[in-house]
Amino acid sequence: MKFAIVLNGCSQTYRSQAEEIYGFLKTSFLTEGEGETFVVCENEKQRDEIIRYAPTALLHLIKMDRYQPEAILHFIEHYEGMKEFRYILFPSDFAGQELSVRLGSRLKGSSMVAVEEIDVLEDGVLCSKLVYGNHLRGYFKLDFPPFCISLQKGGKEPCPIPVIKNRQIFNYEQRSDQDSFIQTYLFKRSEKDEGLESAAFVIIGGYGLGSREAALNLQKKASELDAGFGVTRPVAMNGWMNMGKMVGVSGELVKPKLCLVLGASGSAAFMAGIKKSEFIVAVNQDAKAPIMNQCDVAVIDDYVPVMDALTALINTWQSDFETKRTSE
After folding, report:
1. What is the band of 233 on the pLDDT scale with cuts at 50, 70, 90?
2. Hey, what domains does the chain have and what are their CATH numbers?
3. What is the pTM for the complete model shown?
């Protein structure tokens, strides 16, 4: 069976998208299939990285002057070999979700977003995904191919892509004037914290921080403690911190050795973002907050004195360590 992968090479997260897809392939029946990757790119500077991390040996490189969903859909829809693909996979980000749904409609097939697993049926495909705030697992049958599927963020462990020799690369240039109704545009890169997902120590602030100023102060303290810093969705949506710092199913999925959560209630969507942490400490004045029953250590207190005490303790430990090392 043939499948296609569609990736956004214009994105800062191209490599993580590719490794996410590759991890999914390694645990599904598609690993035995014949795959082709379609990647959109803006310039030659991206070319080497795109080629190195493409999940399949056969690569279609589509050069555009900017990322534009309409132009991407137009190219894929009219690609002459598109009818051969039964499955078309997209990454878990917003762009992947948008393209999967719109392409499924255009090709008169089926689509589903945030899919964790797929299984073959005699008359279709069965998709499973988390639903109702990640409290339940739902199973959905798709009847009409091609099946356009975007993955569930964190559903499968990303898998490093091995060096693929003897790649077959096809180059295209696609005009991006399908959205002529747009008169002017500006793309601004988000302030995504590239180290948050791999940080060993993460501090996360919730709505209980109370203000943007408090969030900025906590971010500064996290930096002083050499910790990654993230926030819950309410903090980001209120504009207290940029969206690139958001932790949860709509943001980053972290897996530190120590996760310190301050002033967060612990919604299911947020807990999904920290569930792989080795040790979770929650500080909240509300003893009945859901997170207090889901963490390893619960501290019922105002986060400010707790952070002050923690900072003083760590500074003292570091000072003692430096003194001991110097004396030796």
Report:
1. very high
2. 2-173 (3.40.50.620), 201-327 (3.40.50.1220)
3. 0.76
